[in-house]
């Protein structure tokens, strides 16, 4: 309708700028990036430069600032020095074949050795685990350290936060770390902050965004860790956020979703490893250095605990943008390739990179019984469809996919290998957890943690519906298209 011709000079400038953007993208985008991620970014920039370039400048870098890298490097050096007298694996311990080399890998990447630890409880009842944590805090005499991705002081989390307030009132040191954007997205955030202040304990935001103070970073670089330490004697790690199990959300028909979680309570020397992760994050956010003699008294000791039964050989594996080696992804890949008989994966967000997908499908082709437990309906639209885009290749390889029925969200995160090794923690089995989120995982062997987590997976299997390849192939074309778009979007890491 409007045929406007641009001056030749303007057309030339536009063409030169367009060509320059694309030429630079081809040489810059792939640097230190997975092939799938590079391809996704390049497609977006080459075909939609006005959209792709601003997004890449805003979200394209998975690096945190140099200060965070420096702090993590310094922390690793201190751990290497302070724990140099400890072997990677407790002496005399007989581990399943190949496991000791994985623990050596973990130590090289994170500086934390394998130590004994008692898995006192594996908790799955949502309100029960909150009550358990509250009881532990009520028993605190020296300090309480809590770190979580999402915190909201509501009717469900009240026992924990009220216990923290009581602890502070009786003179116990109480420190809390919460992720800024992880918590801010839920209703009641301002009221929660106000109640924290009134309670009197010390708290800080992790990875805060504050434009007025020039505190800016990629928005989806988040601290997703969930760790609780009480007096250096008890530790909790798993998938639980401190919020009501419905997260304040509804689904069609007025029914509330309900998140299902799994958390382990541990004691013994392993608690010092959990404390060290908290201490690094605490220093990173508020520059307060926690005294090692006060808060890590067991870091250099290994009491004579006979490993077996509830006493496991345990190793904490932190990961995230502060590390340049993706420790969790390397651990998961190594464990999956090690599987000989059975591999159970429980993950709310299974969006694998090339190495994880190849490892899982190869295990299935090798004859390993591979079972994947996911939600029938995830709580995030893009993740739901990106995850579903992998189902065909998984089913064709022989992976059994169990979908836990809605409105439940199966948010537990663990895997077991051959009833011999297990990992539980905050890390999803997706590219975001491998490269963008700070995560924490707990690996256990030579004790009963793998068997106890296998029993939980069996309980999830009961109400779940197993997906068949024949049924899956009947889904409509539009859904397949949506899945493929979501898959491409998920690769923009």
Automatic annotation (TrEMBL):
Where does this protein chiefly localize? membrane
**GO cellular component terms given for this protein:** plasma membrane
Q: Which NCBIfam families match?
A: bac_cardiolipin
Q: What is its EC number?
A: 2.7.8.-
**Which compartments is it annotated to reside in?**
Cell membrane
Q: Which SMART domains match?
A: PLDc
Q: Which organism is it from?
A: Kineosphaera limosa NBRC 100340
Q: Which residues form the PLD phosphodiesterase domain?
A: 219-246, 406-433
Transmembrane spans: 6-29, 41-60
| GO BP terms in the entry | cardiolipin biosynthetic process
Keywords for the protein's UniProt record, in alphabetical order: Cell membrane, Lipid biosynthesis, Lipid metabolism, Membrane, Phospholipid biosynthesis, Phospholipid metabolism, Repeat, Transferase, Transmembrane, Transmembrane helix
Q: According to Swiss-Prot or TrEMBL, what is its membrane topology? A: Multi-pass membrane protein
The molecular function GO annotations come to: cardiolipin synthase activity
Q: Which Pfam families match?
A: PLDc_2 (PF13091), PLDc_N (PF13396)
Q: Does the keyword Membrane apply?
A: yes
InterPro entries xref list: Cardiolipin_synthase, CLS_N, PLD-like_dom, PLipase_D/transphosphatidylase
The protein's name is Cardiolipin synthase
């Amino acid at each position: 309708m409007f045929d406007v011709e641009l001056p030749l000079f303007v057309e030339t400038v536009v063409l030169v700028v367009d060509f320059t953007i694309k030429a630079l993208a081809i040489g810059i985008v792939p640097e230190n990036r997975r092939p799938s991620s590079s391809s996704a970014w390049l497609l977006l920039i080459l075909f939609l430069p006005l959209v792709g370039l601003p997004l890449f400048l805003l979200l394209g870098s998975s690096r945190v600032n140099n200060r965070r890298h420096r702090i993590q490097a310094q922390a690793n050096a201190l751990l290497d020095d302070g724990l140099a007298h400890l072997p990677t694996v407790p002496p005399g311990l007989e581990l399943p074949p190949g496991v000791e080399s994985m623990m050596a890998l973990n130590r090289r990447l994170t500086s934390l050795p394998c130590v004994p630890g008692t898995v006192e409880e594996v908790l799955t009842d949502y309100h029960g685990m909150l009550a358990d944590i509250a009881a532990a805090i009520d028993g605190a005499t020296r300090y309480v350290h809590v770190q979580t991705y999402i915190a909201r002081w509501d009717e469900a989390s009240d026992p924990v936060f009220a216990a923290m307030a009581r602890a502070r009132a009786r003179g116990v040191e109480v420190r809390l770390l919460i992720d800024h954007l992880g918590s801010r997205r839920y209703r009641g955030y301002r009221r929660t902050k106000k109640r924290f202040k009134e309670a009197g304990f010390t708290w800080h935001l992790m990875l805060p965004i504050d434009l007025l103070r020039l505190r800016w970073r990629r928005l989806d670089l988040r601290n997703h860790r969930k760790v609780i330490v009480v007096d250096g004697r008890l530790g909790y790690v798993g998938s639980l956020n401190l919020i009501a199990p419905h997260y304040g959300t509804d689904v069609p028909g007025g029914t509330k979703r309900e998140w299902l979680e799994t958390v382990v309570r541990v004691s013994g020397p392993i608690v010092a490893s959990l404390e060290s992760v908290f201490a690094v994050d605490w220093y990173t956010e508020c520059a307060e250095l926690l005294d090692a003699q006060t808060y890590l008294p067991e870091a250099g000791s290994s009491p004579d605990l006979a490993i077996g039964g509830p006493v496991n050989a345990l190793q904490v594996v932190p990961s995230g943008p502060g590390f340049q080696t993706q420790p969790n992804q390397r651990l998961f890949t190594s464990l999956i390739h090690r599987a000989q008989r059975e591999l159970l994966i429980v993950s709310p967000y299974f969006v694998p990179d090339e190495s994880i997908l190849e490892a899982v499908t190869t295990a299935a082709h090798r004859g390993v019984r591979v079972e994947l437990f996911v939600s029938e309906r995830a709580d995030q639209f893009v993740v739901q469809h990106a995850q579903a885009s992998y189902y065909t290749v998984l089913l064709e390889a022989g992976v059994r996919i169990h979908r836990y029925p809605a409105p439940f969200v199966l948010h537990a995160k663990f895997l077991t290998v051959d009833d011999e090794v297990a990992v539980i923690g905050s890390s999803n089995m997706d590219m975001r957890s491998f490269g963008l989120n700070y995560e924490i995982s707990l690996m256990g062997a030579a004790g009963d943690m793998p068997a106890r987590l296998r029993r939980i997976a069996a309980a999830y299997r009961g109400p779940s519906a197993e997906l068949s390849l024949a049924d899956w192939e009947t889904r409509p074309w539009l859904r397949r298209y949506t899945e493929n778009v979501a898959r491409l979007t998920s690769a923009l890491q």
